[in-house]
Design goal:
about 200 residues, alpha/beta, Glycerol-3-phosphate (1)-acyltransferase, about 15% strand, globular
């Protein structure tokens, strides 16, 4: 409710493809990363399906904020290195039939474009074999870009793509599989740009 009251009036939030979200079974939501608002943007459209999410470990340094994001099922991950503990927790969540949100670019984009996906994503897919749901965000970069301050106006949208079986990505191999997922998200982001311009 708090996210709704903030995102809708200030940013005219829109969502597309909500019916594509599987309501049961392990689901890996794979999204581009534009701003600090991204987990809330994805979560608002995904309200019928709770999910855990990876969050940078330094966000847990503030005790109050750490308590909030822990209540929202955040899993701490150390950026810039192979965090085996975080990977194990992600795989465990999926093996329990839960949903998990990850940002495979590894950090918020500096340009607004979708960056290459990191290899840890493929490890999770191979080990847990979840249904993969591509997710695209647009507008959040303009509202709160990396290194900047948030604006209280703008347009934000999210689109949930069609589910992809894990076997489809695994059979492609690591490089082609990750490139395919990245291209799916980037294509949906371009579609969102057109939708926001037209509305």
């Amino acid at each position: 409710m708090l996210c709704f009251l903030f995102l809708v009036p200030f940013y005219r939030y829109r969502m597309f493809g909500v019916r594509n979200i599987p309501l049961t079974g392990p689901v890996l939501l794979v999204s581009n990363h534009q701003s600090y608002l991204d987990p809330a943007i994805v979560g608002l459209g995904c309200s019928r399906r709770q999910f855990a999410a990876l969050a940078r470990s330094t966000l847990f340094d503030n005790p109050v904020f750490a308590w909030i994001i822990k209540m929202l099922n955040a899993i701490p991950v150390t950026q810039g290195e192979s965090d085996v503990s975080a990977m194990r927790k992600c795989i465990a969540e999926l093996n329990k039939g839960q949903a998990l949100l990850i940002f495979p670019e590894g950090a918020r984009t500096l340009t607004g474009e979708v960056e290459p996906f990191e290899t840890g994503t493929m490890l999770i897919i191979k080990r847990a074999k979840p249904t993969i749901l591509p997710v695209a965000l647009e507008g959040a970069f303009d509202v709160w870009k990396r290194g900047g301050y948030p604006k209280l106006y703008g347009r934000i949208a999210v689109q949930y793509g069609k589910p992809i079986p894990a076997e489809t990505i695994i059979e492609m191999g690591p490089d082609k599989g990750l490139a395919y997922l990245r291209d799916e998200v980037a294509e949906m982001r371009e579609e969102l740009k057109d939708k926001l311009r037209a509305s």
